[in-house]
Design brief:
The chain is an all-alpha fold. About 85% of the residues lie in helices and about 0% in strands. The two termini are about 30 Å apart.
C-alpha cells in the first residue's frame, strides 16, 4: 500500500516538486544549524525532513526516466553491467 506522502507527491507538478525540494533543503540546513547551536526539542525532525527530501528527489528522477527513454535505456545497461560483474 502506498503511503499518503507518496500519493501527494504524484499530484504535484514538476515545478512544484523542484520548489518543494529547494524549500525543504533550506529548512533542513536551518534545522541542522539550530540543532548544532542550541539543540532541538525533537531531533527526529531532521531525519524526517531528510527522508522527505529523498522522496521528492526519487519522484523527480522517476519522472525524468519516464519522460526520457534514452535515460532509462542507459540505466538498464548500467544495471546489467553491474549484475554481470558480481
Amino acid at each position: 500500500m502506498a503511503s499518503t506522502k507518496y500519493q501527494e507527491l504524484q499530484e504535484l507538478s514538476d515545478d512544484d516538486l523542484v520548489a518543494e525540494v529547494e524549500a525543504s533543503r533550506t529548512q533542513y540546513s536551518r534545522l541542522k544549524f539550530d540543532h548544532t547551536i542550541t539543540g532541538l526539542e525533537n531531533p527526529l525532525d531532521i531525519r524526517t525532513l531528510r527522508r522527505d527530501i529523498a522522496r521528492l528527489n526519487t519522484e523527480i528522477r522517476r519522472r525524468q526516466l519516464a519522460n526520457n527513454p534514452e535515460l532509462a535505456a542507459n540505466r538498464d545497461r548500467i544495471r546489467a553491467r553491474r549484475r554481470k560483474n558480481k
